[in-house]
């Protein structure tokens, strides 16, 4: 059977996500809340907090929304912005920015640069530091517990110790900054007059895009890494990297205060794949290592819960009936697949989708950390698999790997697609012809791809130690039948000899065929023992 392997904000805008799609929110200074469930195209007004000085909105890991007023009062909604209740107060005016870190610690910054922290979802606050800047307009967290604030006049300060101490690092070079957001790829700020700047090192800034619209008030992003910008009139634009922007929709309201999402930023899981599949397999072969997967996070630990795998190839014919089951193993530490020492963590039969089939495998108790974890995708080939078919592995996109909220899988690296695997050797016969003082071995292949050489091995016992007695150059690649012959004239009449073939491919992988036996006799007419193959073993 042929094997292929492919791996294969506005006043802020806020987005929250989990297994439920992310939602965008805009809000007015007077506390009216608009929501979009289709990436900003259409909007509906869902609630009103009843305040006159709303300043910022953020979401915790449970997708609950929090709104801070300029006077320091904190309100919370547990139903996507419909109903609100006040949960706490900073007892300090001049609040301007609100942010949750990955551990659900809540930070509020004031325009005068004071930083407050709450570890109980806003019930109580403590003043933990003063940044030493004035005219602060926002706060954001970059993954790996780095907090950043920016001022109206473009000064950037950073804290790497959860807001205890701050360092002023750079100036954006603008005097009308309205918001800041952090992505894994860098920091973004926007100006009231429509310009977008980016920094990847906290020190230098570049202007990457501009919108032909003034009065930008907020910037946010969704679980796909898309940026969203809102205006004070409720218009929303989106961009993938901040260079070019597309206007999506409008909440049709003047004096919007900000835009945000109910997507809670968690650790990002990186997935990489490496080819470990053999050149070919035989119907009935089990525990065939197909793909090595490496998973790691950029920050906190996350739980891997499910994977979807497609049996897909770039050429040839795949079929769901060719695969009995797909499995996942965790490596034992030697980074080499072994069914004895590696740990099984999930498996599933294959569902026929008319295109090769797929499996959805529930993963058992797998924690992904910053230390790379190694896993293997493994196939059991059906006894009745069509030897002219191909099989392969493909993961289309990050939705194929499910992790616990609020972690997410990186969009980079997909599809995991490692290229075509070679065709197997189809060995149609292997025979031993015994004569006087000799044994003639004859074998016939119907096709070969990626073959290097045949090694002939002999033993005095079927289960004994086999010795190399010669070799023949293989065809490399051919779709046509090939007949090979090897004469063993180092035998003793009356002794039974066992023979097997070891086929080495161009990758150095060895597949064995046989064994068969013959007994040479003096003056004996030639006869042979015939066995249809392949009959591989390891």
Give a written overview of the molecule.
The chain is an all-beta fold and 538 residues long. Helices cover 0% and strands 52% of the residues. The chain is built from no helices and 46 strands. The strands form 12 sheets. The chain has a 6-stranded mixed sheet, with no helix packed on it. Strands 37, 38, 41, 42 and 45 form a 5-stranded antiparallel sheet that branches. The chain has a 5-stranded antiparallel sheet with strand order 40-39-43-44-46, with no helix packed on it. Strand 10 (95-100) and strand 11 (106-110) form a beta hairpin. It is elongated and about 110 Å long. The model is unreliable at 1-20, 419-423 and 526-538 (pLDDT under 50).
Layout of SSEs?
Blueprint: E1 2-3, E2 13-17, E3 23-28, E4 32-36, E5 44-48, E6 54-59, E7 65-69, E8 73-77, E9 85-89, E10 95-100, E11 106-110, E12 114-118, E13 126-130, E14 136-142, E15 146-151, E16 155-159, E17 167-171, E18 177-183, E19 186-191, E20 195-199, E21 206-210, E22 216-221, E23 227-231, E24 235-239, E25 246-250, E26 256-263, E27 268-275, E28 288-297, E29 302-310, E30 323-330, E31 343-349, E32 358-368, E33 373-381, E34 390-391, E35 401-403, E36 408-409, E37 426-435, E38 438-449, E39 451-459, E40 467-473, E41 477-478, E42 482-488, E43 497-505, E44 510-518, E45 527-531, E46 536-537
Parallel strand pairs: 1-34, 2-26, 27-36
Antiparallel strand pairs: 2-3, 3-26, 4-5, 6-7, 7-8, 8-9, 10-11, 11-12, 12-13, 14-15, 15-16, 16-17, 18-19, 19-20, 20-21, 22-23, 23-24, 24-25, 27-28, 28-33, 29-32, 29-35, 30-31, 30-33, 37-38, 37-45, 38-41, 38-42, 39-40, 39-43, 43-44, 44-46
């Amino acid at each position: 059977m042929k094997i292929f392997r492919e791996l294969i904000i506005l006043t802020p805008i806020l987005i929250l996500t989990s297994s439920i799609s992310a939602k965008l929110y805009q809000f007015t200074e007077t506390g009216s809340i608009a929501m979009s469930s289709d990436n900003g195209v259409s909007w509906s007004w869902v609630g009103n907090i009843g305040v006159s000085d709303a300043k910022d909105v953020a979401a915790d890991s449970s997708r609950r929304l929090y709104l801070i007023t300029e006077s320091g009062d904190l309100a919370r909604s547990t139903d996507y912005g419909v109903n609100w209740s006040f949960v706490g107060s900073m007892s300090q005016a001049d609040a301007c920015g609100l942010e949750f870190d990955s551990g659900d610690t809540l930070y509020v910054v004031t325009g005068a640069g004071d930083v407050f922290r709450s570890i109980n979802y806003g019930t109580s606050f403590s003043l933990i530091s003063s940044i030493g800047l004035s005219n602060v307009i926002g706060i954001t967290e970059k993954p790996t517990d780095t907090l950043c604030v920016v001022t109206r006049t473009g000064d950037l300060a950073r804290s790497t110790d959860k807001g205890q101490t701050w360092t002023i690092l750079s100036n954006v070079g603008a005097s009308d900054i309205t918001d800041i957001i952090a992505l894994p790829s860098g920091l973004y700020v926007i100006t009231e007059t429509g310009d977008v700047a980016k920094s990847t090192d906290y020190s230098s800034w570049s202007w990457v895009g501009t919108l032909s619209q003034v009065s930008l008030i907020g910037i946010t992003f969704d679980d796909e890494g898309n940026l969203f910008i809102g205006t004070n009139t409720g218009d929303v634009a989106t961009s993938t990297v901040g260079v070019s922007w597309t206007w999506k929709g409008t909440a049709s309201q003047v004096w919007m205060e900000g835009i945000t999402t109910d997507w809670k930023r968690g650790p990002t899981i990186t997935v990489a794949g490496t080819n470990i599949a053999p050149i070919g397999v035989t119907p009935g072969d089990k525990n065939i290592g197909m793909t090595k997967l490496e998973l790691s996070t950029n920050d906190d630990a996350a739980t891997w819960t499910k994977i979807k795998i497609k049996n897909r190839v770039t050429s040839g014919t795949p079929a769901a009936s060719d695969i009995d089951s797909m499995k996942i193993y965790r490596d034992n530490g030697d980074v080499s697949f072994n069914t004895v020492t590696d740990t099984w963590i999930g498996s599933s039969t294959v569902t026929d989708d008319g295109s090769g089939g797929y499996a959805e495998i529930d993963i058992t108790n797998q924690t992904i950390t910053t230390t790379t974890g190694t896993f293997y995708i493994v196939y059991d080939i059906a006894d009745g698999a069509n030897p002219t078919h191909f099989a392969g592995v493909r993961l289309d996109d990050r939705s194929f790997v499910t992790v616990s909220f609020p972690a997410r899988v990186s969009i980079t690296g997909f599809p995991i697609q490692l290229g075509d695997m070679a065709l197997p050797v189809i060995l149609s016969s292997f025979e031993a012809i015994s004569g006087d003082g000799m044994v003639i071995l004859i074998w016939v292949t119907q096709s070969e791809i990626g073959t290097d050489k045949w090694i002939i091995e002999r033993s005095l016992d079927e289960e004994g130690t086999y010795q190399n007695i010669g070799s023949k150059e293989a065809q490399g690649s051919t779709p046509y039948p090939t007949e090979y012959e090897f004469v063993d004239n180092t035998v003793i009449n009356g002794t039974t000899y066992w023979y097997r073939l070891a086929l080495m491919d161009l990758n150095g992988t060895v597949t064995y065929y046989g064994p068969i036996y013959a007994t040479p006799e003096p003056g004996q007419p030639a006869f042979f023992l015939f066995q249809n193959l392949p009959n591989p073993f390891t």
